[in-house]
Amino acid sequence: MFLPFFDTLRKVGVPVSLREYLTFLDAVSAGLVTYDVEAFYYLARAAMVKDERHIDRFDRAFATSFEGLDNLTAQDVLDAVDLPAEWLEKLAEKHLSDTEKAEIEALGGFEALMETLKERLKDQQGRHQGGNKWIGTAGTSPFGAYGYNPEGVRIGQDGSRHQRAVKVWDKREFRNLDGDVELGTRNIKVALKRLRQWVRDGATEELDLGGTIRATAEHGYLDVQTRPERRNAVKILLFLDVGGSMDNHIRVVEELFSAARAEFKHLEYYYFHNCLYEGVWRDNRRRWDAQTPTQEVLNTYGSDYKCIFVGDAAMSPYEIAYPGGANEHWNAESGQVWLTRARNQWPDHVWINPVPETRWNHTQSTQMIHEIFEARMVPMTLEGLTQGMKMLTH
Fold this sequence. Notes:
single chain; alpha/beta; 5-stranded parallel sheet; 12 strands; 40% helix
């Protein structure tokens, strides 16, 4: 019965495998989420989504597959009901107090509940407000809307008031994690976490559970063992383009910088404008009187650093190809020379471009830098950053 749901997931781009689908069916068959729609949603997501980027697509597929379940008419409910006889009893044991179970039993169980609903639909004329018998609103009757009954049939209500209906996934809290959207600090961190090289260093601060078990077994008494925490040992050298056309991308670059500083213990950064030349700087307010020679940077940081350039690559082609082409100073050597030196010094390198990839061909300079970096240029999307982190590990 869930094959259409599986098919919809594949159509919207969730790469769910047949094995994952069968795992989901096994969990449902085992009764892990019996009679709990919200738990059913989370079970399906846990079984068939293996990457955070696909959660929003899953939510959309789920909403499409189960659309309308919370908007059934009274007759739809009566015609569609085909539940096992023990449904109410099992659910009551899980969710209801003794008093509430007694109220349900007073109606004679599930069959009596449905029969009573049929009779009241025939007998009732007009809208009923409040109360505990007629089909209406804001009451405690088992039938109606905008009220509360532990096992009621909702009729004619737009949305949920007690969060017990099929609407959880419509919140789509993970919409900004889709691989094609612009980034925020949170999803930048998701991508950067893929660039990790764990080592243990520092003081012995972390409980070594395995070592504690072994030592306790050997000595015959509790012997707590500790070890240094694992830390990300990857070294990052970050070059950030500032000024000019990059002013349009300040926010996303700031978020990338913030995420990188939080994620990497070994992070060095420098600023440049448009293209890499003979000088870079750390403080934009002192870019003219406190520059660091680029050759010094090349000599300081070894080839074990991962080098990341961030810029829109939009400039005059002369700034890349010719001495004296820079628009703010006289450069004795072309930008292409300095970029090539950087590539040779740091073999693990990538250029991250905040401009959408569909517009790269509109600018000659972008194509030139794309060629200099031998296609190691990625867009600043979650998918692009993920691809860039993979490039830095090879």
